[in-house]
Design brief:
Shape of chain A: globular
Strand order of the largest sheet of chain A: 1-2-3-7-4
Largest interface: C-D, 105 and 107 residues
Low-confidence stretches of chain A: none
Oligomer: homotetramer
Strand content of chain A: 15-25%
Distance between the termini of chain A: 32 Å
């Protein structure tokens, strides 16, 4: 299942050390102005090698649009985009051919498929998100035409919330050959009421699935999230006034359907599994071995996960807006 | 979208005060022994009127299997099950025809559809989950045949973790015309490694979507969940030993694929939105009005959400097991 | 796969001699007036026992709507409909428990599932179409609101085209313990241009799949159909004039997309497989045996297939109209 | 909807005069040996410029595999393949920017999308099938591993069945600035019994949808096809003997499920819509104008449609074999 969405559908492909990664977007409405300069800035936010706190892999990640655009506009036909891999250093990973990195998908891929591309994590690499971000950039363009914007921010890293303290935590982890986790928050503004379906297609269900479908995310909450567990209903309910809702504990979603308030989502991001510190693991023959994961890794993935999470939220919302458009006309 | 699953697919229907609720299960393997006595006990756990701490609506919730079973076994054709509503007291809800209950889907349904069945919440009622539980009971039978079990427990209610304290919190809320939230945990034991897909079809993504698709759930976490945000990678990674994994911070899922360990999921459940306490809201004409929600409601929905969450987890796992079965033979 | 459609989605269930048959319709727009009297007349056209030329099984086929309707209108939630079986005479089929009827699905069901409900054909009975016709009746209501009508007619039976000759062929076959095939034509009038997708979702592809998905249909053609094989392009192309197209060899579909002309479909219907005449077949132990199929059967299924084919065409068109509605607003 | 299949799923993209065309294959089992030399021969059969009877556009149609293969084997992750366009002569089509070619999708694309890539038919060009053929080549590899083969042949062109007569008809049409249609037949050998689902997912329904989803196909029949309309049941039923079926009027499918016999499909292919002969049509302003379609076209598309139809049949069968694999293990 490398396809996401019902109406604004994307199919992604590509591995960390393969020839190229990319996405095909199907169901995008016709007539939207589009060229590579709409996509590249989002990919640039995501790409490695741009900060001393991130992976030093050097990839320009230049996107090429192969189809679906005519004289600068989308035509309603599928839009294929690709990014070629340039700086894969596959020899760094030779040791990993036979060892399962702790916290990674190495063991589970082997169990599932009986074969795996061990180079840079293969399909389970963070580079897999290139296709998501490229497609998300187009979703954001479509949303912006309808007054909807999506943004993300770092809430905390390793318990710290101030930028300086966060930077310090990341550097300290890096220097110790370790990594740290954190929390990010996404907000969508300008969403009309009525998006999402009441039962299995709840907007928050779609968002939760989209977020947990990003590698390293281990928790998702909407609005007040886990804090609701300690509350009274009289506190948690959002009263309505003449001007709308008096609070937004619901995070903009009631009964699975958008209320017109800001949509607020938080995700828990685990510390990067790839660390230099020595760990215990197994090799493919079942022997317990030591492992120090080489290669070029982010000591904290929270900053680089932001554009990916924004892209996924944008994709969910674009999909729901197209779904809802059916009923606005046809009832 | 009232259909859930790709392989073990259920379609549910029905409203709180309509004639009947139910589910059609499509894709269930043939040859599984099945009659109503396999389904009824799960529905009995879910139904109201059985505890002083729960809604007093009296519904026997007797299930009838309409199709898909021949001489006591499933045949591979769709299995339709229905439960008729008996004790709907629609007159209790007449006032709600024109008012939006805070914390409910009333407002968003009206915005989405321009029409809504206000009686007992209509399709957004908790009674909607009858179809899920009935279908989940069958999923559990299928899973049990493959050595997989699913169970749930209350972690906390309003911050309390001991049974007596929990009961006290619920009673106190009820007596105050209020409600309380809590946290529940689900565990699946016996899952083989290899379930779930690496990208959008991650097992944890499917679980997160399934859980957040239950009314009142506002947060989902897998394994260590939000706690990962404060950890070092060297602590959070689960080392492998001769006997398997030395810990289970991952909650049984690595890279979106089951590892063979227990699958551990926690959900945050908001306090019941329906409370007797006076609240501010709007009527359908836009006026601000007072509302005290009558009808028969649960002061805390955590206990009755357990069988629903177990059912959803079982449905996800059954679906993934069928998906994976394709590759076990065809590679 | 007992679900059909992407937007106007139906899921059907039920066997010939089970408790009930029916359908759940998901994705129907809200606000459409609906009660049982909208559905029953279509079911009455389909039901047996109404003509000396058809099966004598006596079934009132009374439909009950279980959900999705509030105060006489659809609400946007799933609409479940059931019809209970009354006159199943399962004892007539006892011999068939161990024999595969020629031309039937008996052998292939056994190969596929390893179990089968032999009574009246089980799920592969013509009674399976009750759910389709019930759902199609609602699709037709929706289409009529948009100016689209669907109708069907018998083109020929056993090579004859005149009503009297057709009746004679059917009677002769019946008296000989045999059956005859024929051709039916469906026409949809009033379809807007623009329905259908250019590649795999072509309108004619959807129609062909829908028609060939009806038991006994062995061929489908659109517009000129197989006759195009003997033509020049200069003859087959439909020229455009001031008033539209000068001919309709295309059957209302160009490049998979409706052109605004009448949509014209023809289907080839095989002679009923169940015949009294003695035939050779195998029993479940592999022995060659004689078989004369008892029970109550139609000597020619063409007349009763008409309402089913109309229903399927209506379902395809309703589905495509909802699909297209997305782009009318969102571009 | 540019995605086809449930289990062996392909998503195609690209236009006649865009940068590239291609396909992403998702759900292909891991471990299948694959490189470009497995795909290229099928593309070579499909490509233009190889016969005096076909379009003279010169395209090498070299395929590049971008992902999903590791050390010469599929890994279970998506396989992206692209073919770059080289010999597009877009200036030939400038006149068509403002005129609707008779028999083409020009008018319906304009009605549907309000925008269209007029160069070489854009997405509705025959070049769209490159992605299908590339994906079909992989499906055939998978099928061959399970003993299934797919082949096609020309039954007739413009009523002629002998090769010499067929060639003469095509040349005569070409010299007259005209085109001719014909009939092709596909046969799949070695299919196991049990493929396909009883109701909407019938194997013949899937095949009919796949075939009618190929541009220029206006009719599909299975086995005896339209001939059944003139038959008695006693003639049309295939008796069973000790060695299997005594005939194959059913074309290998009973009740929508494969019987183990050869699967036999015929398609009616219309004469190429693009002809030099002068025709009447409309321009985009509604004026009636004359048109003689330039560019490089096939006077008869039947020979080049064969590899496409074979590919689509292979895709359907691969998809059904994976679907069926679920039940072989999980029952």
């Amino acid at each position: 299942m490398n396809t996401f969405g019902r109406n604004f559908r994307i199919t992604t492909f590509g591995e960390s050390h393969g020839r190229a990664l990319g996405a095909v977007i199907d169901g995008c409405p016709p007539g939207i102005p589009l060229d590579e300069t709409d996509i590249q800035p989002l990919l640039d936010r995501r790409r490695p090698g741009t900060s001393p706190l991130a992976s030093q892999r050097q990839e320009a990640d230049r996107v090429e649009i192969l189809s679906g655009v005519f004289e600068g506009k989308t035509t309603g036909t599928p839009i294929a985009m690709i990014v070629r891999n340039r700086d894969a250093q596959s020899e760094d990973y030779e040791e990993l051919r036979g060892k399962f990195r702790p916290g990674h998908a190495d063991f589970t891929f082997q169990e599932k498929y009986g074969i795996r591309d061990h180079r840079g994590g293969g399909r389970s690499s963070g580079r897999e998100t290139i296709g998501r971000v490229a497609a998300g950039a187009l979703a954001m363009k479509y949303l912006a035409m309808h007054g909807v914007t999506v943004s993300g921010r770092i809430v905390s890293v390793h318990g710290k919330t101030e930028p300086a303290a966060i930077e310090h935590e990341i550097l300290a982890a890096m220097n110790a050959g370790d990594s740290v986790g954190g929390i990010a928050e996404l907000v969508a503004k300008g969403c009309p009421a009525g998006l999402g379906d009441p039962v299995f297609g709840k907007l928050d269900a779609a968002i939760a699935g989209a977020m947990m479908g990003i590698g390293a995310v281990k928790g998702v909450e909407i609005g007040a999230g886990f804090a609701v567990a300690g509350r009274f209903g009289s506190h948690n309910n959002d009263p309505m006034t003449k001007d709308g809702f008096a609070s937004n504990h619901a995070g903009g979603i009631l009964g699975g359907i958008s209320s017109g308030q800001d949509i607020v989502v938080r995700i828990a991001v685990k510390p990067t599994a790839s660390i230099a510190k020595m760990q215990k693991t197994r090799d493919i023959h079942g022997n317990v071995v030591d492992i120090s994961v080489g290669g070029r890794h982010d000591p904290c993935i929270v900053p680089r996960i932001l554009p990916v999470a924004e892209a996924m939220l944008a994709l969910v919302l674009a999909d729901c807006m197209l779904e809802q458009a059916k009923y606005d006309r046809s009832g």
